[in-house]
Amino acid sequence: MFTLPNDILEIQSKSELEHFMNTTDKLILNFSTEWCPPCRVMEGTISNLSFELNGKAKVIKINPEKLPEVAKEFNMKTIPYYIGYVDGKFNKKAQGVVPIKMLKELVNEV
Prior knowledge:
By secondary structure, the chain is α/β, with parallel strands linked by helices. Helix content is about 35%, strand content about 25%.
């Protein structure tokens, strides 16, 4: 089986997230868990997204069960949930099973 290389970063703390938000021009936050069926459906799309945006934007995976304070701060209500940031500012959001084009729009990379 062929696997695409990806650069998805799974953060472990709020301070780690703050570091990336302060040092990355374009960022997609991916709130998801291992047990969530729609999240599992999106795993391949997220891997492809990371591959296609390599060098243009970072994809950050956040498990809301491990970091509930981060999920609350970003007003996450359902998973999967995606938020795009450009130059440190909120740009767009999406939720559920969505096409890769919509995810690229979160950071203006269509």
